[in-house]
Write a structure and sequence with these properties.
CATH architecture of the largest domain: 3-Layer(aba) Sandwich
Strand order of the largest sheet: 6-7-8-3-9-10
Largest sheet: 6 strands, mixed
Number of strands: 14
Strand content: 25-35%
Helix content: 25-40%
Number of domains: 2
Shape: globular
Radius of gyration: 23 Å
Structural class: alpha/beta
Number of helices: 9
CATH topology of the largest domain: Rossmann fold
CATH class of the largest domain: Alpha Beta
CATH superfamily of the largest domain: P-loop containing nucleotide triphosphate hydrolases
Order of helices and strands: EEEHEEEHHHEHEHEEHEEEHEH
Length: 315
């Protein structure tokens, strides 16, 4: 399968600082491709180069559409949801959406039809004549996303779409990302909410200091860092997980989210059965469960290891 977007060894420098350094990746048609990294990793600079706001100092970006290759994303076939929202706050909701639809090449009647259909779907039809700034932040973000995709783009770049949203709104955006993918839209997703990315991304590229440090599917990234599961204990009231720290098979012990919850990670090569036999003899246990490593764990460990290799031990 030919990539929809091919990024080949791009680099960008600002005031002597290398924001993106020798970065390469491909985005395949119909996938959700996620760019992850800590603040200052170069994600936003990479996105700005993808959409043509700035150009790379080195390297090449190629977009393949309809059998033709170009260096820019055509506005009529692409969408961009910026991290910093850009709606006209004093303009009514429907008028705003029709305006953005026409900017993307739709006729007024078609833009109106699509805008009304979307507003009905997101339960905002009765507020179509209200000003954008009369809506809550979550509803404004829904309007912003509709404005970005109203023309049914082939490629959508979503920069921090979950930021500041409550759990229900986050679930709405997750469902919408899945629907866009089912309808053939390729998505480049930048987000800090690792648990949400983990649920929707086909492939992930983790950046640090402008360079790639890991890439692959979520299961592949798990295996790259640590294939060991967490063992999660729910202890009797008043019991402590501190007794686990002296076990020779234990690498780390941490408190869970709820009262009496303790998470234990074993050392490489440890026998889970032997540890569990000792554990239940030391501490009164109500229940035991396991879960695979999280993308959050992969992210934290990979960035710390990369910083250590580069000599930044303060990270």
């Amino acid at each position: 399968m030919l990539p929809l977007v091919r990024v080949d060894r791009i680099a960008k420098t600002f005031a002597g600082r290398r924001a993106v350094d020798d970065l390469s990746f491909q985005v395949l048609p119909g996938e959700v491709f996620s760019l992850l990294g800590p603040n200052g990793a170069g994600k936003s600079t990479t996105v700005r180069m993808l959409i043509g706001v700035i150009r790379p100092d080195e390297g090449e970006i190629a977009v393949s559409l309809d059998g033709k290759v170009s260096g820019v994303l055509p506005a009529a076939r692409s969408a961009y949801l910026p991290e910093d929202r850009g709606l006209y706050r004093e303009i009514p909701v429907l008028r705003t959406l029709v305006y953005f639809g026409r900017l993307r090449g739709l006729e007024k009647d078609e833009a109106t039809r699509r805008a009304l259909a979307w507003l009905e779907r997101v339960d905002l039809l009765d507020r179509k004549d209200e000003r954008v700034d009369a809506l809550s932040k979550g509803n404004q973000q829904r309007v912003q996303l509709i404005a970005a995709i109203i023309h049914r783009p082939l490629l959508a770049i979503l920069d921090e779409p979950f930021a500041g949203l409550d759990p229900l709104s986050q679930e709405f955006f997750l469902d919408l990302v899945r629907e866009l993918r089912r309808d053939g839209t390729t998505i480049v997703l930048c987000a800090h909410q690792m648990d949400l990315v983990e649920r929707v991304a086909d492939r992930v590229l983790l950046m640090n200091r402008g360079r790639e440090i890991l890439s692959g599917s979520v299961p592949e990234l798990h295996a790259t860092i640590d294939a060991r599961p967490h063992i999660r204990f729910n202890l009797d009231e008043g019991a402590s997980g501190s007794a686990f720290t002296d076990d020779p098979d234990v690498d780390s012990v941490s408190a869970g989210e709820g009262a009496g919850e303790v998470s234990v990670r074993l050392r490489p090569g440890s026998a889970v059965s032997g540890f569990l036999a000792r554990a239940v003899g030391r501490v009164p246990v109500r229940s035991i469960s396991t879960e695979p490593p999280r993308l959050h764990d992969v992210f934290v460990r990979a960035v710390r290891e990369d910083d250590a290799r580069r000599g930044d031990f303060a990270s």
